[in-house]
Amino acid sequence: MSRARRLLSLAGLVSAAGVMGGCRQDMHNQPRYKPLAASEFFADGRSARPVVEGTVARGHLHIDQARYTGKENGEDVTEFPFPITKADLVRGQERFNIYCSPCHSRIGDGNGMVVRRGFRQAASYHSEKLIKAPVGHFFDVMTNGFGAMPSYASRVEPDDRWRIAAYIRVLQLSENATIEDVPPEQRPALENAQ
Q1: Do the beta carbons of residue 86 and residue 92 sit within 8 Å?
Q2: C-alpha distances in angstroms, 147 versus 1, 63, 123?
Q3: Which of 2, 9, 140, 168 has a CA between 20 and 30 Å from the CA of residue 62?
Q4: For residues 90 and 76, what is the distance between their CA atoms, to the nearest angstrom?
Q5: Tens digits of pLDDT across the chain (194 residues)
Q6: For the chain, which domains are there?
Q7: What whole-number distance in Å separates Cα of residue 159 and Cα of residue 81?
């Protein structure tokens, strides 16, 4: 094969590859509508169809009002909607340290790193008002926000919000705990650790 023929073949292959690469547009250039934009496709002028009445999106069937709102009959619930285990407290501590401690600090006194950098003072979980607050209050604040605190509903799943509320209760109890609060069989381990 002559050199000119090889160059011609190579140029043909490169051209074919370029043309074929440009043809693979599939879904890249398909027609689409922006959400809620007007459309001539449907007779009612909408670009999307309304939700079928009586349907619930997967993962959004929230029958247990207390579990998903922290309230019953408009009042904050006073008890957790599911039993809290040690694993729940560990998970609550982990989520608290990620989402809450930047403002409230790891001990819950309201002096987290964000506050020390000049932002608004966060609430102390050790204030008498919050010690007496029902657990549903903490869930509601995480869900809807309060004052300068934004809603964390999009970042923290409902059950994790309950776990954080349980961990907040642990922080509150630990602040004023005495050796008498520890079961007698576990006291020697604590006394030896000091």
Answers
A1: no
A2: 81, 29, 10
A3: 168
A4: 24
A5: 678 788 788 877 777 766 666 666 666 677 777 777 888 888 888 888 888 898 988 878 888 889 999 999 999 999 999 999 999 999 999 999 999 999 999 999 999 999 999 999 999 999 999 999 999 999 999 999 999 899 999 999 999 999 999 999 999 998 888 888 888 888 888 777 76
A6: 86-178 (1.10.760.10)
A7: 9
Question: For tokens 């959400």, what's the residue?
Answer: 35
Supply the DSSP symbol for 146.
Answer: B
Sign of the torsion angle spanned by Cα atoms 58, 157, 159, 63: negative
Tokens found for residue 93? 């501590």
Residue with tokens 């050790």: 126
Structural tokens at position 71: 């309230």
Alpha helices by DSSP H, listed for the chain, are 3-23, 65-69, 86-95, 101-104, 113-116, 128-132, 135-144, 158-175, 187-193
Contacts of 165 (CB under 8 A, 6+ apart): 80, 92, 135, 138, 139, 142
Q: Are strands 71-72 and 75-76 parallel, antiparallel or unpaired?
A: antiparallel
Task: Give yes or no for a contact between 94 and 168, defined as CB atoms under 8 angstroms apart.
Answer: no
3-state secondary structure (DSSP) of residue 149: strand
Q: What is the DSSP letter of 72?
A: E
Query: CB under 8 Å to 97, separation ≥6 — which residues?
Result: 106
